[in-house]
Design brief:
alpha/beta, 16 helices, 7-stranded mixed beta sheet, Aldehyde Dehydrogenase, Chain A, domain 1, 407 residues, Aldehyde Dehydrogenase, Chain A, domain 2, single chain
Length: 407
């Protein structure tokens, strides 16, 4: 077992548990000046990394951590606290970070730290240059904030329910990222009755394009659209919960087919320009997924542009959800109107990224969906952008107590 921030060292469970248990469970009221200044320091540290812009996920994190961004977030959130109420920290928060999105542990930690909580963050143990860079930057800045640093513990260990239980026993909240199996495994560990769990199980995401709008775009505009879609889908090998697996082209079928062909051609150019590659085993996995889908849909049409970009056009049925495999494999649907997606929506659906629709068309679709699915509806290029409102929950509300105070 290792501690990875604010210092790096090998530790025993007994040593780290004692250090955590003897530290305060909160730091200050939510959005203290010190916490915001700390985040600004990490932001500057990340921006100063050579070629930071080439690590788009790190660059986006640095942008989120800017003081101006956080002060705006503070104002928006505190204005939503009911009158005669005060937001206060919940206490020590234990974060189980996902392995597929390397920067997520920082977002999870930052929101909780800004809420005034002490934190234990379990960081994926798989070697990662990005994770090492993030932990080093955080540790360096935390040196200037000893009171906060004394309550923050980043740890790394292989799956071990004994360790998880010991850390759960001294926590007030757990945030569990990583999908169904992770949630089930962590929840199987006996925990104090008052422990609050905030869980993020497996989710599924879609993209929708208005065919007529795409057909009216210039080649340059289509290239920009394909680039934004690439960032949504390929950044984490299409493994992030908010990366689209199904792409819907909306409009007359002939226009949808033409828009589909143009869009995939543009996307292939971006895939090649970004030098995205996949190994042979993953390419075979995609072909196998296509075969499974085609076996149930005799009208399915496979567009195998490259090992890095395959898409199969089908008539929707529930089984296509289980056949998706990431890494540049997309199921394509043609729908007459965007609100037709409502009959397909389920509670598993998280993000609907969109291009070419009017506000009215999006509002109509959302009304028809009626809460059966989709917690986020965002333009292309924003599917992976972290927000404190995630999976239909406001994390700042989950990580604070609303204290009623009458005079």
């Amino acid at each position: 077992m290792k501690q990875v921030f604010p210092q790096k060292r090998d530790v025993t469970l007994e040593t780290i548990r004692e250090a955590i248990a003897s530290s305060p469970t909160t730091t200050a009221a939510p959005f203290s000046d010190a916490a915001i200044t700390l985040c600004e320091g990490i932001s500057r540290k990340l921006f100063s990394i050579p070629n930071a812009q080439e690590m788009s996920e790190v660059y986006s994190l640095a942008f989120f951590l800017r003081e101006g961004s956080l002060r705006k977030l503070k104002q928006e959130w505190l204005s939503s606290v009911p009158s005669n109420c005060t937001a206060m920290p919940r206490g020590r928060v234990f974060h189980i970070a996902p392995a597929n999105v390397e920067v997520m542990f920082v977002y999870s930690w930052v929101i909780s730290m800004l809420c005034g909580n002490a934190n234990i963050v379990r960081i994926p143990s798989k070697p990662s240059r990005i994770i090492d860079t993030l932990c080093d930057s955080m540790s360096e800045v935390l040196k200037d904030f000893p009171e906060i640093a004394a309550t923050q513990f980043g740890v790394s260990y292989e799956a071990d329910n004994t360790i998880t239980k010991a850390l759960s026993d001294i926590s007030q909240v757990r945030i569990i990222w990583g999908g169904d199996e992770t949630v089930k495994s962590i929840r199987s560990v006996e925990a104090p009755a008052g422990l609050r769990d905030v869980v993020f199980p497996n989710r599924f995401s879609w993209a929708a394009v208005k065919a007529e709008s795409l057909l009216q775009m210039s080649e340059e505009q289509r290239g920009q659209l394909a680039t934004r879609f690439f960032n949504d889908a390929y950044l984490f090998d299409q493994r992030a919960c908010s990366s689209p697996q199904i792409v819907v082209f909306v409009g007359e079928e002939a226009k949808s087919a033409k828009a589909h062909a143009l869009f995939m051609g543009d996307l292939q150019k971006i895939v090649e320009a970004r030098k995205y590659t996949t190994d042979a085993s993953h390419a075979i996995e995609k072909l196998s997924a296509a075969a499974l889908i085609a076996a149930r849909d005799s009208g399915a049409v496979l567009d195998n542009r490259s090992p890095e970009l395959m898409n199969i056009t089908v008539t929707y049925s529930e089984h296509v959800r289980t056949a998706t495999c990431g890494g540049g494999f997309f199921v394509v649907l043609y729908l007459p109107t965007l609100d037709a997606i409502a009959s397909m929506a389920t509670a598993r659906d998280q993000t609907l990224s969109h291009a070419g629709f009017t506000e009215g068309e999006l509002s109509t679709a959302l009304t028809e969906i009626r809460g059966r699915g989709f917690d986020r509806i965002v333009p292309f290029g924003q599917a992976l952008q972290f927000e404190p409102i995630w999976d239909g929950m406001n994390l700042m509300n989950e990580l604070t107590r609303t204290v009623r105070c009458l005079w």
